[in-house]
Each structure stands twice: as structure tokens, then as C-alpha cells.
Amino acid sequence: MTDTAAFRNALPFWLSLALPPLVAVGVTQGGWTVLLPPLYAWALITVLDLLLGKNEDNPDPQTDEGDLVWYRAITLIWLPLQAATIYGAIWWITRSPTLGWAEILGLMFGIGVASGTVGIVYAHELLHQRNRLERWLGDLLLATVLYSHFRTEHLLVHHRHVGTPRDAVSARYNEGFYRFFARVLPECLMSAWRAEAEKLGRVGRPVWHRSNPFWRYAVLQVLAVLAAYGVGGAFGVLMFALQAFFAVWQLELTNYIEHYGLVRRRLPDGRYEPVRPHHSWNAPQRASNWLLINLQRHSDHHTRPDRRFPLLQTYDATEAPILPMGYPAMGVLALIPPLWRRRMNPRVRAWRKRHYPDITNWSEAA
């Protein structure tokens, strides 16, 4: 494949580049423009999903990594763009008396859309790779949203225990998002700590050993906060914390959608069946997969966690459950629990009948 063709094919996955300029418009203009980032990431992308339809084509998983340079590039350049967006906004706001509290709150929410919907998704892609630089970029991105333990929780807990009671972020059937969010914040931190303690214990090291990545997490997050203080003082730290909260909220909203109501069968020996494509919700909508770098091909990600996002495969409805809309639109629906249950619970029940027709008591299934 020529460089021009490779660039052209990868270009749609660069939709996220619109977010930093939209934040800049909101910061400098105020008013309704502070809503431009969520309007872009949620509303416009959903409209594009409707207009552009679905992409159910599967790329060749044996594609040479040299042909993926332009796909990978967007994840590699995002850290400086996100840092400039966060700290640049803090610098401007703390020196501009024209923005009111409502506008500042809206701006931090919009920045959280950029650092959560995009930044954490890119960090997720980077942390799954073996390249040391990519893993460090993933760590630095997570530090800018004060959620560094996500690396441990995702790699050591979620991928191993997805669809079981040991995985905090596998949303339970009939569990509303707000209850889920309040539950997972402490549970994810504790499960990540336990996972690292168990890992160290297996090689005879105490939990406070210097190889525990929580030391690195703490240092990177302290540096991120100090940078916010250096740019904007105590008020800058408050704004930094606000955008971090909104980013984490975005992450957990996505986590809620990805596995809602889906469980793995517990085997007679107490273990759980292997993870299969039918243990993740997928969405083939074209535009939202561009923005989320194919995160919605989630079943294949759990099958091959190290597979780079351009090569992720999609499945039909007989193999994996399909959402009625892309993740952005489903996220809005999840914010209204009665509507979410009305739309999703029948789909979960249909999934149970399709894949586990022999199970009658689901309270004992997991």
C-alpha cells in the first residue's frame, strides 16, 4: 500500500483533532460555545452514524504493521495535544475575568469529553501494546485525568474477570448507571491494588516494593497536579480536578455500556468459561468507531487484546450482541435509567435465551 493510500484510509480516525480547537473556541468566546465539544462528540457523531451507516467489513488481521503508521500516529500525538488543551485552558481562564462559573463548569465538562472520550480510549489502546514508548504515553495520558490505576485494573482485572462478579466494571443486569458509577470508583481502585499486591506476592515481594506501579502512578499524578498549580494556582488545581472527574465519568459510562448484563457461565469446578465474542456489546456504526478508534468492536478486543485498533474484527448478531446505536448515543440513553432498561433489558433477556437456554436461575449463574 502506498503512503498516500495508507494516509487516506487512516484519516477518518483522526476525527478527534477537532476537539482541541473547539475547546479553544469555548475558552476564548464563552457563552453557548462551551458546549461545542460534547455537541461534536455526542450529537454530531450520532448524526453522522445515521447518515453514514454501518461498517461491517473486516480488515486482514495479518496486515503488516508498517501499513498502520498513520493509524498509530493519532494515538502517539494525542498526549501533547491533550496537555496543551487542559493546561492552556486553565492558563487562559485564570487570567480572564469574563467567564462565569456556569461557563467554566461547561468548559471543564467539554475538556473532560476530550480527555475521557478520546484521551482514555487512546491510553487504553497504548497500554495494550508491547512498545515501551506507547505504554509510557498511556501512563501519562491517564495521569492527566488522575486515573492511573486504570492500567492495572484493566489489564490485570478486567480482561481476566470480565463477565464475573470479580470484575467491578461488568455492569449488572438492571443496575442503573449512577449506582454503577458510585460502586466502581472505590471498587476499581481496591481491585487494582489487590491485583498488584498479589502479583508482587507471587515473587516474594512486599506490596510497598519499588516495582509496584502505584509508586509511578502517584508520582505522575502529583506532577500533573503540580503543573496545574503552576499554571493556575489553587483555582487551576480545582479546574484540573473537575476535568479529570468528567473524563473518568466518560470512561465509566463507556464501561457500563460495554458489558451490561452479560455474564460468563460458572463451570462445575468453580472456574468460568473462556471469554467469547458474546460477552461484549458491539456497535458497527461507522462514525462513532472512527472517533473511538474501533472500541465498539469490543468482542474482538477481548479475544485479541494486543490487536491494534485498525485490525479489529466485527461479528454478526449470531456471534455477538449488537447495540441499536453507537456508544455516544447509548451513553446518553444510559443517563436516563428507565429508558435504558426499557431498551436494553429485553436485549439482555434475548441474549440469555440465545446463548444459555439451559440456565433458568440467573441469580446463581455467575
Automatic annotation (TrEMBL):
Pfam families: FA_desaturase
Gene Ontology terms describing biological process: lipid metabolic process
Recorded GO MF terms: metal ion binding; monooxygenase activity
Keywords: Cell inner membrane, Cell membrane, Iron, Membrane, Metal-binding, Monooxygenase, Oxidoreductase, Transmembrane, Transmembrane helix
Coiled coil residues, start to end: none
Membrane topology: Multi-pass membrane protein
Domain Fatty acid desaturase: 104-331
Residue stretches spanning the membrane: 34-52, 73-93, 99-123, 218-246, 322-340
One term under GO cellular component: plasma membrane
Subcellular location: Cell inner membrane
InterPro entries, alphabetized: AlkB/XylM, FA_desaturase_dom
PANTHER family: ALKANE 1-MONOOXYGENASE 1
Family: Belongs to the fatty acid desaturase type 1 family. AlkB subfamily.
Protein name per its UniProtKB record: Alkane 1-monooxygenase
